[in-house]
From TrEMBL:
The lineage of its organism: Eukaryota, Metazoa, Chordata, Craniata, Vertebrata. Its main location: secreted. Monomer. Homodimer; disulfide-linked. This is Bactericidal permeability-increasing protein. GO terms for molecular function: lipopolysaccharide binding. Keywords: Antibiotic, Antimicrobial, Disulfide bond, Glycoprotein, Immunity, Innate immunity, Membrane, Secreted, Signal, Transmembrane, Transmembrane helix.
Length: 176
């Protein structure tokens, strides 16, 4: 066993219960804060799927035929409150989302293209490195019913870009 820290040493104690985590999830959900609009401008250039009908032609060939190489927008939102559980090793969450895609015509009219439900399981672990408090996020499961090719592409995109972005944003500086 190690000795407790001396009174003059900085210490941070963080405690999160499932009640606190789920209350926060409920508040964000009911306030409508779990919504995001995406366009090609908001995605990293290296993202494997650009939001254009040409790129999504593999998933929905009719899009490319009807609207050749037009830009698209994607609206993401939580269709149910996220469920969170606290365990000694990590914070686990189940996210229930929907995504609606729109084709953006040259006159800025938005034409609905498709609607998908996307459910994901994530795990978050806190980390402490020097004077930094952070966390690591891991995608542990994803389900896009009836669209296996899109599910695989989304998993790859989240693994390659979404999770690293979340991990880079999950850092706080703790001053001594």
């Amino acid at each position: 066993p190690t000795a407790p820290p001396a009174a003059d040493e900085p210490m941070l104690l963080v405690a999160v219960t499932e009640l606190v985590a789920n209350s926060a999830a409920f508040a964000y959900f009911t306030a409508g804060a779990l919504r995001r609009n995406l366009s090609s401008d908001t995605l990293p250039r290296r993202f494997p799927l650009q939001l254009r009908t040409k790129s999504l032609g593999l998933i929905a060939p009719q899009l490319q035929e009807l609207y050749p190489d037009q830009p698209m927008e994607l609206q993401l939102w939580a269709r149910r409150q996220p469920l969170l559980s606290c365990r000694p090793d990590a914070l686990h969450g189940t996210l229930f989302g929907s995504a609606e895609a729109f084709v953006v015509l040259p006159n800025a009219t938005r034409v609905p293209a498709f609607l998908l439900n996307i459910d994901a399981n994530v795990t978050g672990k806190p980390t402490i490195s020097g004077h930094r408090l952070g966390g690591r996020v891991k995608l542990t499961g994803m389900l896009v019913p009836q669209v296996k090719s899109l599910e695989n592409l989304l998993k790859f995109g989240l693994w390659l870009f979404g999770v690293p972005w979340a991990n880079s944003e999950c850092r706080l500086r703790v001053s001594p």
